[in-house]
From TrEMBL:
Keywords (A to Z) from UniProt: Membrane, Transmembrane, Transmembrane helix
Transmembrane segments annotated in the record for this chain: 20-41, 53-75, 87-105, 137-164, 185-204, 224-248, 260-284, 290-311
Keyword Membrane among record annotations: yes
Protein name per the record: Uncharacterized protein
């Protein structure tokens, strides 16, 4: 399905969804890349036994990688070439469900690690003399973190794919402001829940182990790394605050289309996640042993930070319900013909939709025409 010249809004929305799908797809490629590369190394995969979690971790890595490649291709075609097809987006919607496998596998691995003996557990350095309760609590926060970050990330790609599919099947009116408003509340709640997990983990570590810097090793589980407990608490608190704020905005507590304060705060939050949660916390690991985890965590965190901002913008700037003519903006010539024939759609005036006339210029004057005017002349 290619865009005709009149469908400016339709074209703009499709490019928007496609562009975000391409970015998220690239992040999906980055996350499992280390595991895939190691599987093809001289030592091969960690295990080929289907009863072992690492085997399914390898399968899950390929699933996420495949979804990322498909998302990048579909997003690129929609953004750059204004082309997409309902069969292609239907295929994407179908296979994107397999992208949950890596996170389910990770939660299983963390759950198994939380029940390991104190000598075998890998969440808390033994120098801190952790108890079984400590290990289980850290594991629980890790599972909650994977659930929220994973759902937000896969949900973000899936969301863009479903939106593109709706446009490809001729039902763009389903993606009105009311639709985004409902999803805004959901993703904001997920953001708050993910922040709560990090906040509680940081607070627990600060009380149980040390309140300064962990010089004997980092407490780490899933995407959470605690070398400075206070940093974990601060980043988690910011996410809880913005998540709760987003829930309130989803039910109408905002100032309309020009209310950009939430966007600014979410931008600051994302920068804090990259610099504090990812760089500062992981960088303190001795000899850079966890440095390879930084790109994965940064890529995985995009969904949970991006979606509330995106949904908030769409929710505030789109009509609650689309009318039949919303996705197609007629040209000035179309408006003139409709107006003269008395066939203007109900409730629409020529002044509301007409494009500017081409100004008259003398022979000596250089025409000053916009791209829309040039397109009108070419017709």
């Amino acid at each position: 399905m290619s865009m005709i010249r009149e469908n400016y809004r339709l074209q703009s929305d499709r490019r928007q969804f496609g562009g975000l799908m391409m970015i998220l797809g690239f992040c999906a490629i980055i996350q499992p890349l280390g595991g895939i590369v190691s599987s093809f190394g001289p030592d091969g995969a960690l295990t080929t036994d289907p009863s072992e979690i690492p085997f399914w971790g390898m399968i899950a890595a390929f699933c996420l990688f495949t979804n990322g490649v498909v998302a990048v291709i579909i997003g690129y075609m929609s953004t750059v070439h204004d082309w997409s097809h309902r069969y292609l987006t239907a295929f994407s919607v179908l296979i994107i469900q397999t992208a949950f496998i890596p996170y389910i596998t990770d939660m299983t691995a963390v759950g198994k690690g939380a029940t390991a003996s104190l000598e075998e557990q890998q969440f808390i350095p033994s120098d801190y003399e952790p108890t079984e309760t400590d290990v289980k609590f850290v594991g629980a926060m890790g599972i909650l973190g994977i659930a929220t970050y994973g759902f937000a990330f896969v949900g973000a790609i899936s969301f863009m794919a479903f939106c593109l599919h709706a446009y490809n099947t001729g039902t763009p009116e389903q993606r009105s402001g009311a639709y985004f408003e409902g999803r805004m509340g959901l993703y904001s709640f997920i953001l708050a829940l993910g922040g709560l997990a990090q906040l509680m983990l940081g607070a627990y570590c600060r009380v149980k182990f040390d309140n300064a810097v962990y010089r004997e090793g980092i407490v780490h589980v899933a995407m959470f790394f605690v070398s400075y407990p206070t940093i974990s608490m601060c980043v988690g608190l910011i996410q809880v605050f913005t998540g709760i704020w987003g829930v309130f905005r989803s039910v109408g507590y905002h100032s309309g289309p020009n209310d950009y304060y939430y966007q600014i705060i979410l931008t600051a939050q994302w920068v804090a996640v990259l610099t504090l949660q990812v760089v500062a916390q992981i960088a303190y690991a001795p000899e850079g042993e966890l440095a390879l985890a930084a790109p994965t965590v940064a890529a995985m965190s995009l969904g949970i930070n991006l979606m509330p901002a995106f949904l908030d913008q769409k929710m505030r700037t789109l009509p609650a319900q689309f009318d039949a003519n919303y996705s197609a903006l007629p040209t000035h010539r179309d408006v003139k013909e409709l107006s003269e024939s008395g066939s203007m759609p109900s409730g629409v005036t020529a002044d509301e939709v007409a494009m500017p006339e081409i100004p008259e210029t003398s022979v000596d004057e250089e025409p000053n025409m916009s791209m829309n005017m040039i397109a009108e002349i070419e017709v």
